[in-house]
Write a structure and sequence with these properties.
By secondary structure, the chain is an alpha+beta fold. The chain has 15 helices and 20 strands. Strand 10 and strand 11 form a beta hairpin.
């Protein structure tokens, strides 16, 4: 087992990993930028080091600075969290070259699967159904040619990262130049690379993702699925486990098929296969996330499996049957809301001083955050303040628990999206489980009501 692990991330995910390391008896090393010098997450680590200025490229995307801290602190492994360098094959290779362990899949797997177009090519060779898409495109003229071949509407997507960042809809050739440049800048700033491609835009699909754990000895296991259909700006806002209203046999069949594919390619440690689903088409492949997901906590709530513990133990070489001694089963329903510092009508970030930040305290709730009152929300990073996770015996009970927790959450000084989430939770379409990523009318009605 590792002796000391550097957590190469910030805020909620850094605090989550630091907690897991403490529970496993492993020393933790945190890093922080100028913008995060007053945040509480890094003060919970055994050691903390200043990383650089606020700009991600000078701090959390600065591989040289992170590896320098790892060497100085004597860490023997690096946990990347999610976002930033978590799906960078170059970073994983650099960590390994420095004699450290990257707490995630092998660099070769990240290179294959972390890059979205390469992942699509690989999964297509294994017979996975998928919508039409392009390869990485060089410029606007190539985009127009590919779009004419595939047909509008389309999505512009970064090939080297996820989280909805840099994903923009493309409805016609007159939008190409402006949106391509916007997506390119976002991808470069967020993931350190600007590779972009096009993907066919399905009408009103559900976004279903399958959680996997795998050891470095050939064993792979699916820990059920999550529904992540409720989104704004192509970023997830509300996630549930298990997916409501889907035929359990259909879901289990897809999970088994994905297990077989991941085993055949030698997948290891942790990852998520994201799919789109419509009743007419069934499941179609979307992408593989070669990392821990933001929404991992709802899977933990319904399975009792600590995914961060498992990720660390599997990266250290333990076998899957040691990490998962019994076959996981579903227990009730869990739902998560992402709390953002943003305008709840236009979904524009709301940086500035967070004067009051008081999460709710209930037995049925779990809060993950890296913030506290009296600190500043930086414009340099994603504006997510916290994740609020509720569990219940039924979907209805979980929704009620989440709604009650949102009502008790006190945030002052920044605009936030809690009013938006509350209205989504009470909307008849959501209550009935009729979910899709194209819930435009629902989102608009909710925003107008707010």
């Amino acid at each position: 087992m590792f002796r000391k692990v550097l957590v190469a991330n910030r805020a909620a995910v850094a605090q989550r990993v630091i907690r897991a390391l403490r529970e496993l008896g492993i020393a933790s090393v945190a890093v922080y930028s100028d913008a995060d010098e007053n945040l509480p997450y890094w003060k919970e680590a055994d050691e903390a080091y200043w990383l650089g200025p606020a700009s991600p490229r000078e701090s959390y995307l600065n591989q040289e600075a992170i590896l320098r801290v790892a060497k100085e602190s004597g860490a023997d492994a690096v946990h990347p969290g999610y976002g930033f360098l978590s799906e960078s094959a170059d970073f994983a290779e650099a960590v390994e070259a420095a004699g450290l362990v990257f707490v995630g899949p092998k660099a070769s797997l990240i290179r294959q699967l972390g890059h979205k177009t390469q992942a699509r090519n690989l999964m297509q060779r294994h017979g996975m159904p998928m919508v039409r898409s392009s390869q990485v495109l060089a410029d606007a003229s190539a985009v127009k040619a590919a779009a004419a071949d595939i047909g509008y509407p389309l999505l512009i997507k970064p090939a080297g990262g996820g989280g909805g960042i840099g994903m923009l809809p493309l409805n016609g050739p007159n939008e190409v130049e402006a949106k391509w440049e916007q997506a390119r800048v976002l991808a470069e700033r967020s993931f350190g690379q600007a590779d972009l491609y096009l993907e066919q835009l399905l009408c009103a699909p559900r976004h279903i993702e399958f959680q996997f754990l795998a050891d470095r000895h050939g064993a792979v296991k699916c820990l059920f699925e999550r529904d992540c259909s409720v989104q704004r700006r192509h970023q997830k806002v509300i996630e549930e486990a298990p997916a409501p209203g889907l035929d359990r046999r259909l879901v289990d069949t897809m999970a088994a098929r994905l297990e077989s594919i991941l085993q055949s390619i030698g997948y290891d440690v942790i990852g998520t296969v994201e799919m789109l689903y419509t009743p007419q088409v069934g499941f179609v492949f979307l992408e593989v996330n070669t990392r821990l997901q933001v929404e991992h906590a709802i899977t933990e709530a319904v399975t009792g499996v600590d995914l961060v513990h498992a990720q660390i133990r599997l990266a250290a070489g333990e076998r899957l049957h040691e990490v998962l001694p019994e076959t996981p089963t579903l227990n009730g329903h869990a739902i998560e809301a992402r709390i953002y510092a943003e305008d709840p009508l236009r979904f524009i970030p709301s940086p500035g001083m967070l004067k009051t930040f008081e999460p709710p305290r209930h037995d049925s709730l779990r809060v993950e955050t890296g913030y506290c009152g009296g600190v500043r929300v930086s414009s340099h990073y994603d504006p997510m303040l916290a994740k609020l996770i509720a569990h219940g015996a039924t979907r209805e009970a979980a929704i009620d628990n989440l709604s009650r927790g949102l009502g008790d959450f006190r945030i002052e000084g920044n605009k936030h999206n809690i009013p938006f989430i509350q209205r989504v939770l009470s909307h008849p379409e959501f209550v009935a489980g009729r979910l899709s990523t194209d819930m435009t009318a629902l989102v608009q009605s909710v925003a107008q009501a707010a």
